[in-house]
Amino acid sequence: MTTPQTPADIRDQSFPRKLLGLDADGVHAYLDRLADEAEAAERELAESRAENQRLAARLERVQAELEEYEQVGERTNEQMVQLLSQAQLVAEEMVQDVTRDARERISHARAHERKIVEEALDTAGREVSTYARSAQARMQSIVDSFATEVDRMGGTPPADGPGEGVDDPLFAEWPAPATGREA
């Protein structure tokens, strides 16, 4: 393998002279042009190598950043999974708490409803009882007035008249009207 020649080697190349040989000036002009092209190719090659090194360094930086982003992304994904799991647990606990609270409130409301109904029934029973006693007293007063009126008129109603022989439990507790004929 031959070693590559530099543009200077090409310029300095000498050739043996022969009697009817080549035009030395034409050969040297050709060699100069070839050396210029070789120099240009070497510059382009050096620039390409420098650009390749710069691009390789940039590629390494980008790959390092990409790896870092991937690691951050993986950590972020893991954190998101953990956060979502925690959020789900918190939501489930909240649902359980709200359900428990709702059941307690419903239970308290039902107990309060029963108490109100019991109090209403007690109050209604007392009022009905009071009304019944008042109605009984008024009825007694009417019966007494009627008996007094009958006595005043001097006659007694027939045995099968109003109030007599009636099997009405409402009137069963009331005493029979005074007729004035009792001994």
General description of the model:
This protein has 183 residues and is mainly α. It contains three helices and no strands. It is rod-shaped. The N and C termini lie far apart (168 Å).
Shape: rod-shaped
Alpha-carbon Rg, integer: 64 Å
Q: What is the rounded distance between the termini? A: 168 Å
Largest sheet: none
Per DSSP E runs of 2 or more residues, the count of β-strands stands at 0
Give the DSSP E fraction (strand runs of 2 or more residues): under 5%
| Average predicted local confidence, pLDDT | 82
Helix content estimate:
over 70%
* Elements, N to C (H/E): HHH
**Continuous helix count:** 3
Low-confidence stretches: none
Q: What class would the helix/strand composition place it in? A: mainly alpha
Task: Summarize the structure in short.
By secondary structure, the chain is mainly alpha-helical.
Keywords:
183 residues, mainly alpha, 77% helix, 0% strand, rod-shaped
